[in-house]
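3.2 Worked example (two chains)
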Amino acid sequence: MGGFSDPQKDNRKKSGGPWYPFGEKGPKLPDFKPFGGWKFSIIYILILIVGMSLFNYVFLNRVNPTIDYSEFKAKIRSGEIKRVELTDSYFTGYTSQYRQEGPRFPSVRSYTRVPESVYRTVPINDPDIIKLMEEKGIDYYAVSREGSTVLNIIFSWVLPIAFFIFIWRFLMKRLGNMGGNVLSVGQNRAVIVAEGDIVTRFNDVAGVDEAKEELVEVVDFLKNSKKYTEIGGKIPKGVLLVGPPGTGKTLLARAVAGEAGTPFFRMSGADFVEMFVGVGAARVRDLFKQARDKAPCIIFIDELDAIGKSRINNIAGGNDEREQTLNQLLVEMDGFDSNSGLIILAATNRPDVLDPALLRPGRFDRQVLVDRPDLKGREAILRIHSKPVKLSPQVDLAAIARSTSGFAGADLANIINEAALLAVRGGRKIVEQIDLMEAIEKTVAGLQKKTQIMSDAERRVVAFHETGHALIAAFTPGSDPVQKISIIPRGFGALGYTLQMPIEDRHIITEEELLGKINVLLGGRAAEELVFGKLSTGAANDLTKVTDIARRMITDYGMSGRFKHVALTQRGANMMGNKFPEPQFQREYSEATQQYIDEEIAHMVEKQYNDVKLMLDRNQTLLKTIADRLLEKETVDENEFKVLVAGNRVNI
């Protein structure tokens, strides 16, 4: 048995490419787009319902009311009815003798209409009706309603059923996109990236060299696992990336998958847990089942703390959904062989809340710290993100890196993007140094409010307030240098600002330097009181920071007279170090100690405030000079400020 076969078409089917029915050079069959690419909208459902109702009302319900059978029979006897149409459902009588000729379709009328009356009745089993019509000479005939019956079935059954099936499928699809499809809750929602689709490499990641070195071993195992298994070594089952937000944990995971050239399962911790009990555990099982089928591969769970919180401090008790999900994850991590080529990467910025069972050897037995970049790392990150941006040859990225101490990689990427937007807003084709500096100020202090109008009295208060900050910073040894003073409102409620940028990264701060920070923060209020003889609310944020520094000096750093070398609180004792302390909700010392802390804070702040006020009192001329320049120009830069201070300072 044979048949005609187009080899070109068969080859196209195998390759998945388009089929040209007239040869490769001939016309290509157009892509089929139902309804010309028409997009579905719920409004069309409403239009369809209204249209069906109107059709039913106009065409299907245009019938005459029925009369009693006895009355219908009486009209035949009286001779009023001249013609009767017989159907299974009704007897219809007409007062006219004209009949329809030709095919009897409801839409075709081949006879001439005259004014007539129509009477309808429901037939009953009456053999005498035919004799009566013959006696009276009534023209009667039977009409088949097969077409109407089919139409009635279509409109009464087929269309409503099809309509509700369509609505059901549409709603299930929408609910499935929102995670509420009860028919597929057990399926994992991981984004599966195929081998070779990830273009991120280690060269695209900068500022975290130590973390990259830790992950190179993972990549090497996925590529060359034999050299590890021959010697009897085992690669860590899980690698936990720990670090503050925006430092590049997710980017590092993508780089590992890109370097290894393996499939990549990406999923957030929040994707496991739903409102239905058992969904999280089912999704964990499904995720690991698919990963084993595609091994070697990488599973990346972002925001692990969403499902990995410690079970020790479960106040509610019982076995909730999140705990079931965590238990299943622990079981799955124990269940696969470390030599199977399945690597689990996870990221979190809250390692202190993770369950200890997750961090033990055999699960996430390697923790990699992805910290904020140093000066060299910030410059490397800036160079990577500025590659697609047109920069002026005069742009100094090293200076930008020095001005962004403490910034994470995401912050630096945002600065480059903001600078490009500012350049376009200013009508420039390339990004200048001024755009990058303005982007830093916008990130640190907020957006300029050029339209906000302040009275002259408020402008004077703000000018002297900011000048007080700047002068104390200049007078305090070891303080960060002043880069800019401005009385242009920025951000939320900031009527002015003094921008200080550190020269180098600092990891240890001495007691004298902490007191110097307190002095700089108190400089604004001291200047207000010295010049105007009264206080204002402008120093509210400064006082909050001052109180926090003083309290931590006493409670955390052991820098008080009575509790020297004693830490009164346990906050900050976590994997992230003291940079990311947990809020202290429970006091760990007595009422007497609390009273001492409050009194010591007040005494420390009062002493530093008097010293600051004395410094400004001896330099009132310099204070007034810089404040007047601020009122005139609204902004004083670093160079101008240094010149003014050097020429008018009084030694203290």
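3.2.1 Second chain
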Amino acid sequence: MSAKELNRAEAEVRIAKLRELINDYRYHYHVLDESTMSESAADSLKHELTVLEEKFPDLVTPDSPTQRVAGKPLDKFEKVRHERRMISLADVFSEEEIKDWLSRNEKLLSSVDQKRIQFFTDIKMDGLACALHYENGKLVKAVTRGDGLVGEDVTMNVRTIENVPLTLRTNVSGHVEVRGEIVIFKEDFEKLNEKQIKNGEKPFANPRNLAAGSIRQLDPKIAAARPLKFMAYDLITPNKPTHREAYESLREYGFQTSGEDKVFGTLEEVFGEIKHLGETRQNLPFNTDGMVIKINNRDIYDRLGIVGKTPRAAVAFKFPAEESTTKVLDIVISIGRTGAATPVAILDPVVVAGSTVRHASLHNADEIARLDVRIGDTVIIYKAGDIIPQIKEVLITLRPENTEKFNYEKALKEQYPELEFERPAGEVVYRVKGETSDLILKRSLEYYASKPALNIEGLGEKNVVALVDSKLVGSIADLYRLNVSKVASLERFADLSAKNLIAAIEASKTAPLPKFITALGIRHVGAQTAISLANKFHSVEALASATEEDLLEIPDIGKIVAESILAFFADEDNMKLLQELKDLGVNPTYTDTSSLPLAGKSYIISGTLEKYGREEAEDKLRALGATVTSSVTKTTTALIIGEKPGKSKTDKAAKLDIPVISEQEFLKLIDEA
């Protein structure tokens, strides 16, 4: 009987049966790794359900399989405080460290509890941690880990994940909280990248970043188009006596787990499991960076408590880092937010532990001397804890002839001729002479908020000093953690000025991409270069992954500017800051300027304009797609002059037969454009 022939009562019965059958198929497919029917048959059932629900929309329920994509794109994610802190685990790298971990815990337990200890183990998945909340069996909220105390409400996106139960399979009254990792399986990731390449688009970097980025899209349709999976690893509420029983409940509720969880009575058995997973982890469907070891009894686990941000009763064993070889293309020096000069090796891009490595920290001058690493060397790269790229060894036998030892002080003078550096006694790090971290921070904040950058009204020099000196702001990211009450507590602010400042900071989250790149304060990157970078890469993430060759393809970028950009994105502090800003909702927007009225034209302004300041006038031109430069060349479209223009510029314009236009002609030009 077709949907057209069914009356409402018949449709209600049919819809209920279809939902039950589709949900049962998904449970067997995702959780039990069994197939009760072909994928095409399941798609046919879902299509029938969709047709029936379209005919009888009052029968649609929030937990229907058709309702995984729901709602319009959000303006932003709401902050949610976790009912119980989402903690991270301390890392261990050897059997000895695991023995020490157990010994420390045993000292805190009675002899009776010591005898009750069993070890629960599971593979550690590399994804985005998320907490799912259910009320009387229905999914009501999904929250990212965030800082462990406060996360973001990503319910609409999580609802699109096929293996997330919208309704628990067993009748559970009251509140249920399940925690897990949102991942993309390796096979799905490879298929997705094949599709990207086929469509002429850039492949994604790695599954973890893609999973995290997909969940943090404001439009749930984007998340729905990605092959995301939720892999449960903990049941917070209701509490169970052991981690083993918690996992059993998770599977009964309808959640997919790794399938690698086990319980052991001795550490020797745990070490055997580490060896087993170390040998077989490449065959797992998802990426992993270690194995979790917990004391199985949850009463003992809870009583052992937390130290800092990590529980005493659990650790994460990290597998030995994967290694690869590559060449050192250059060594550049990055100046961090504290004034410390950190050398960075620019590498021929190579894949290590599932992600592309383009640079590695060399830490300091002593480390360079210890390794004797030189430009042109072939080196062995590894990831410490599968995260931070490091140079393990230089392969001297492959060293090209006529290489030179890296001269650290000479490199500092060449790369930063206007700065003085000192190496305080007893330290291994060179620092900018006479600079304190607070002074550098204040300058960075002032520039970040300045007119050429994000133009944050109310964040001038004096207010920046007040915010930093009061300890309300310790980094650029802290600007986005301010609220009206915090700002209003300072002497310089009243309620209205505090509200205006917070509104201006909030508005800067979606600033144009060129303005944001300018605001980062990358050495040698001004407003016009930032526009060129934005037009080439379209996002900060793509710019951060650029190679020297990519950068040198841009006409107005030479080797010095390229090295400065590479150094900025090779600095761990800078990358942590960018991730923080992203997590706080800073999402600069890119607009294609190729079709704007003045696209392809180049202007220079000389002299004082009556209506606009220099920066404002340049912004007007750039907003219309024009390029604004500082010197007259053959490619200059026109020289715009105000009062007292520079003689050298007007003379060169006359020599090259470049048109010279007045302020009135300039105003007419932008009005018409």
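3.3 Remarks
The first strand starts at residue 79 and ends at 81.
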